[in-house]
Amino acid sequence: MSRVDERELESSRVATWLRDAILDGVRDPGSKLIERDLAAEFGVSRVPVRDALKMLDGEGLVELRPRTWAIVREFTAADLADLDEVRQVLDPMAFRLAAERHRRDGLELLRVALENEQESARVDNILVSRRAAADFHEIAVQLADNQLLSDLMGTIRSRLRWSLVQHDDLKHIADEHVALYEAVRDRDGDRASALAFDHVESSIRERLAHAVAVRAEATRTVAN
Amino acid sequence: MSRVDERELESSRVATWLRDAILDGVRDPGSKLIERDLAAEFGVSRVPVRDALKMLDGEGLVELRPRTWAIVREFTAADLADLDEVRQVLDPMAFRLAAERHRRDGLELLRVALENEQESARVDNILVSRRAAADFHEIAVQLADNQLLSDLMGTIRSRLRWSLVQHDDLKHIADEHVALYEAVRDRDGDRASALAFDHVESSIRERLAHAVAVRAEATRTVAN
DNA sequence: GATCAACAAATGGTATTCCATTACTCTAAA
DNA sequence: TTTAGAGTAATGGAATACCATTTGTTGATC
To answer: Which Gene3D superfamilies match (chains A, B) (predicted)?
Structure first.
């Protein structure tokens, strides 16, 4: 039942394994990623590991320097700011197009994801809610029906997932998603676009508040 | 003098070779890319060829299906439309940020690229002018000082280069670049953004006109 | 004549091996 | 004690070999 799909490539499995390890914090930013070690650890040869590292490099999760070991990408505040700026143009575009172009079955998928998100946010199931929120975004991008946009979003997906760990006002996010859904459903591109912009702005504000809270907590701890 | 840099990776050289072959039309869209053949043709083993195909897959120039041969990506009208839509949000963003953040030495680079473009457009040097126009865009993206934006633009650079082959009103492009440069120089983000949007729109119109002209020509030829 | 099955050829995925380059360490000299 | 340098270990890049999967073709059957 839970047996792995033999058709999936080893390199993809290694990539998934490594990606989760990095995003779950098992591998520290800046730490070495040595092909031979990873290969031995995962039980494959170096070739699929190389391929996997290439993929993660494309996603921006690892830094692949020529002729020396790769390292886990260190995300800085500047990286987060860059991501926010890009989202501020791509998310409105995605939701505008989704509103203008969605078909009935696609809208239904969006609705289901939204319901999952609301329900899990209501009962404070952080992991499921985060996942559903990510699904909501992803489905909206699909509805936009622009393959290049989907590809670009795919390359920043891991970064996004990483940035989401930074804050967690799930109910607030779910509420904004409700408004976004309604704009898409009503085929109101302008409203969807504006809401998406606001959504990014509010997530930026929330992250800042979160960072301040963490810093205050740290200061308090030091003081004691 | 023109001796190759031995420090550059073999895979990068293969990628450059293949990329140029595809963009120059030496390899037809849809044609097979067989690792063994490419390796023999370029005189290396399959390994760097595999790596190169991975890179070009990331750039959207080749389609890499699992367990069977890769093919040269076939660009459709839909692909061009997708590219235009993405440019309509990323280009304004890039020029707005470039206007707001540029430093003196960066602006100087932009000015030099612009002068090259104007001069070569004046004497109808198509190749140099296209190259300079591409440089102008690329430098502007650098001035925007957003690493993620640079990366995303990098992934669509090959597509852009491909789409540029479709039209060639060089002087018109150069004129619009002059206006863009002035907005950037004046640190007028709003104007730069609006001009960039118009710039994309006019390039879309021009391509359409070009396509219509080509089709009319074809019809005339058939009629004779 | 069309269709499907089986076999053969071709192809990409992976493992193994070797090599050039890089990073580390230890020693000796200032 | 610090620093420069040589020697050594470690690492990624590339070549080669082998295997599983896919594709193309041929022939038999309906």
So the answer is: GntR ligand-binding domain-like, Winged helix-like DNA-binding domain superfamily/Winged helix DNA-binding domain
Q: What 3-state DSSP class applies to A72?
A: strand
Nearest CA-CA partner of A70 in A49, A41, A86, A44? A49
Q: What is the CATH number of the domain that holds A148?
A: 1.20.120.530
Which of the pair, B194 or A166, is modelled with greater confidence? B194
**B1: in domain:** no
Say which residue, A196 or A221, is predicted with more confidence: A196
Domain that residue A16 falls in: 10-72
B89 and B107, same structural domain? Answer: yes
Do residues B85 and B191 both lie within one domain?
A: yes
- Kindly give the residue spans of alpha helices, DSSP state H, lying in chain B: 10-23, 35-42, 46-58, 77-101, 104-122, 126-143, 147-164, 170-185, 189-223
- The CATH number of residue B26's host domain is 1.10.10.10
The residue in chain B having the minimum alpha-carbon distance to the alpha carbon of residue A148 is B82
Looking at chain A, which residue has its C-alpha nearest residue B47? A47
Once rounded to an integer, what is the mean pLDDT over residues B18-25?
Answer: 90
- Name every chain A residue with its beta carbon within 8 A of the beta carbon of B89: 89-90, 92-93
Element (H, E) at A211: helix A189-223
